[in-house]
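Appendix B, example 12.
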Amino acid sequence: MTVGLEQLKPLSRVFALSLKPKKILLQAGGLLAACLAYLIISRIGMGIFTPGVLDLLSQTVAAIVWFLIIFITWGAISRITIIEIRENRGIGIKEALSVARARVKLLILSPLKLAGVIVAILVLHGICDLIGLIPGIGQLIWPFLAIPLFLLSAAAVVFLLVLIASTLVLPAIIMTDKWNPISELNDFLRNNTLRFIGYFVVAIILFALICGFLGAICGLNENVSFGVMKEKYADIAASMPGWMNATVSASGHVFNAVPLSTGRSLLSAAPSTSELSAAYTLGGLIWGVFLIIINLAITSIPFVLWCVTGTLIYLELAPCEEPCAAAPAPEAGNTCSTCEK
């Protein structure tokens, strides 16, 4: 069976709606804000707490804030995509962000509710495990909890998958004016389970392929430069200021952690000498700026593709979403109650 243009049309539509400078710029801005928030919160935590539980907690909080900023950005990108599909027109970044700000509470609380369920399940699991620590009888009682503990672990994994899947369609649900998004998500997944699983797998494969392609470009770029420049390449990389190295890492670690022929990566480059000239410092600063720009751009591409893919999936599978783009206007007699919500 050959693959024709008709089979490739949905994929071409995803790329056509994703690879737009406006959306990539919006995602890059959100990614930069998320990375800066992560660095600030994590550095404050490391400065206040000694390594241990509290330090790990600050890192976790920083990661949650990073994710929520990205999720809010996806809301704005999803809104742009919805307007493009429904009304066949574009809207500006400012207007999209304004709509996302109006729904920021839903964009924050919806994924946190799902994450809270997972945390509650794991806490309950841990409480049951504490029974095994009771001196004398704990080791006799705890084995009887084997099946309940297994079921709790299964529930945690299921809700984790739901949380990951929700990042695909929740922004679109919220941006189509659904004011009870978790309930809408539950109905959507229940009514479209098998079809959504197929789309979800395709979205993950597409995301991984794009990341792999961009990672191969970065890896080739780094290895060729190191092969020609040798120590000078490592010296320029090591001359980046510490804060810039951290920003490079936060904005595109996966693309800059490819091992060189020496076994090191760009982010762990060590200088050939401790006394480098000022030219290296300036060169490292300039190169770091461009590297951050490149990282923000290439990291934004798979993120935008993920968001746009999820929006298209929701509009395709949810009843009376995308078809309403071609429906009559309300004043002409449109009676689609779903779209009027």
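Confidence is low (pLDDT under 50) at residues 1-8, 323-341. The CA atoms of residues 74 and 119 lie 24 Å apart.
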